[in-house]
Amino acid sequence: MLFPRLLLCLLAWALCGSGKPTERKERVVREAPLSAREHDDAQSFDYDHDAFLGAEEAKSFDQLTPEESKERLGKIVGKIDEDGDGFVTVEELKAWIKFAQKRWIYEDVERQWKGHDLNEDGLVSWEEYKNATYGYIL
């Protein structure tokens, strides 16, 4: 009598144990990455440039000579140094990176809005949205 119960318990345990989901769900909500580029400083500093300058500004820096780039970065460092002590703290750098990313987002939203506002009245109607998004003819 004890053996069938033990066998039944082992079978139930095995079935329950194998029914666990194998996919692990992430509980932590992560912020969007600072750049679409891979972060590998051994290969290049493109990720850091995007994070520091914003994607659009980083593209313009790619076209500059090293001297021009150094001069423009010097001007930017002056903007980052909020307390004007001649040094950039970690907090000032974090604030700058957040500012650069938000600026890029707002500029992207503005471009998107202009692309949807076909009659340029400052409003996006459902018809304009459908046309810009799905290609319907007004």
Notes on the protein architecture:
With 138 residues, this protein is mostly helical. Among the domains are: 41-79, no CATH class; 86-137, no CATH class. Helix content is 61%, strand content 0%. The chain has six helices and no strands. The longest helix has 27 residues, at 90-116. The radius of gyration is 27 Å and the shape is flat. The mean pLDDT is 77. This is CALU protein. Keywords: Calcium, Endoplasmic reticulum, Glycoprotein, Golgi apparatus, Membrane, Metal-binding, Repeat, Sarcoplasmic reticulum, Secreted, Signal. Pfam families: EF-hand_5.
Structural class, by secondary structure, is mainly alpha
Helix content: 55-70%
Total DSSP helices:
6
Rg from C-alpha positions?
27 Å
Low-confidence stretches: none
Task: List SSEs in N-to-C order.
Answer: HHHHHH
Average the pLDDT over all residues and give the rounded result. Answer: 77
Family: Belongs to the CREC family.
GO molecular function: calcium ion binding
InterPro entries: EF-hand-dom_pair, EF_Hand_1_Ca_BS, EF_hand_dom
Protein name: CALU protein
Q: Can you give keywords for this protein?
A:
EF-hand-dom_pair; mainly alpha; 138 residues; single chain
